[in-house]
């Protein structure tokens, strides 16, 4: 066990509506250090720390703060709305600012804190062309023998959203991995099942690519709002009930804004033995 004088890689455990993250701070250390093997080891809920996504913060100064995302199976993710909100809060607490810009593979994302302590991030405009989602071809998903006539939405990562009568009744453990790995999605996909509560209110259950069932998914909430609006089910702003709480997605002229809670769980240090797995 590490004592207080031993060095080790510091991390913070956070969550946003139950979507949980390990945040590694690599600022001022000459660039990111994460590898697929180490990300997978830290993500192991029995032998590591456990998380849905790992977020590594690096860069700073004039080029700006950068954020990379890893799934618990060691794969990379181009976007993670809830981790972006959590890390934005961490930086805002540190600097005393009420807004921050974080550079991600999705682009430079602007985040702000509201007077209830919730953090919002502009996740950008949805990507709706098949090449951008991406899909394996110019196919109409509604014509496919996939239950529920889904919509494909890119938010910097792929999402397949199924509007269904009752999201509670969906067998997520069977259907999630089936569609995640469908050849229609060359980079695999996140899978969301949504049902309508009211024209401004959805229920969503999610299977995340590279992770499995999670209690919430921010980019998934954005994709769900876009899909529901395109289907004529909702307006542009929706409250979304997820297993871990509530998120709000608002498709505005400048992009889809995702709002929700952030929480700090604990801080720790990874042991040298764990680091040796990098
Ligand atoms: N939980 C996330 C999405 C994480 C990435 C996803 N599993 C992927 O591989 O694209 C969110 O809050 O957006």
Task: Characterize the structure shown.
This protein has 278 residues and is of the alpha+beta class. Helices cover 18% and strands 39% of the residues. The chain is built from 5 helices and 17 strands. It has helices at 36-43, 81-95, 172-180, 218-230, 272-275; strands spanning 9-16, 19-25, 53-60, 64-71, 76-77, 99-104, 107-113, 119-122, 151-154, 158-163, 190-198, 201-208, 212-214, 237-242, 245-252, 255-260, 263-270. The chain has a 17-stranded mixed β-sheet that branches. The radius of gyration is 18 Å and the shape is globular. Mean pLDDT is 94; it is low at 1-5. Bound molecules: ligand LBFN2T5F. The ligand N[C@@H](CCC[C@H](N)C(=O)O)C(=O)O binds next to helix 2 and helix 4. Keywords: Amino-acid biosynthesis, Cytoplasm, Isomerase, Lysine biosynthesis. Substrate binds at residues 19, 53, 71, 81-82, 157, 190, 208-209, 218-219.
- What is the number of helices? 5
The CATH architecture of the largest domain can be named as Roll
- Radius of gyration over all CA atoms, rounded: 18 Å
Question: Could you say which overall geometry the principal axes of the C-alpha atoms support?
Answer: globular
Structural class: alpha+beta
Q: Mean pLDDT across all residues, rounded?
A: 94
Q: How would you sum up the major sheet?
A: 17 strands, mixed
Q: Could you name the CATH homologous superfamily of the largest domain?
A: Diaminopimelate Epimerase, Chain A, domain 1
| Distinct ligands, ions and cofactors found in the model | ligand LBFN2T5F
H/E element sequence? EEHEEEHEEEEEHEEEHEEEEH
Q: Number of domains in the coordinates?
A: 2
Q: Please report the total strand number as a whole number.
A: 17
Low-confidence stretches: 1-5
Query: What is the CATH topology classification name of the largest domain?
Result: Diaminopimelate Epimerase, Chain A, domain 1
Content of β-strand: 35-45%
Distance between the termini: 19 Å
In which range does the helix fraction lie? 10-25%
What is the CATH class name of the largest domain? Alpha Beta
Catalytic activity: (2S,6S)-2,6-diaminopimelate = meso-2,6-diaminopimelate
Site (Could be important to modulate the pK values of the two catalytic cysteine residues): 159, 208
Organism: Neogemmobacter tilapiae
Subunit structure: Homodimer.
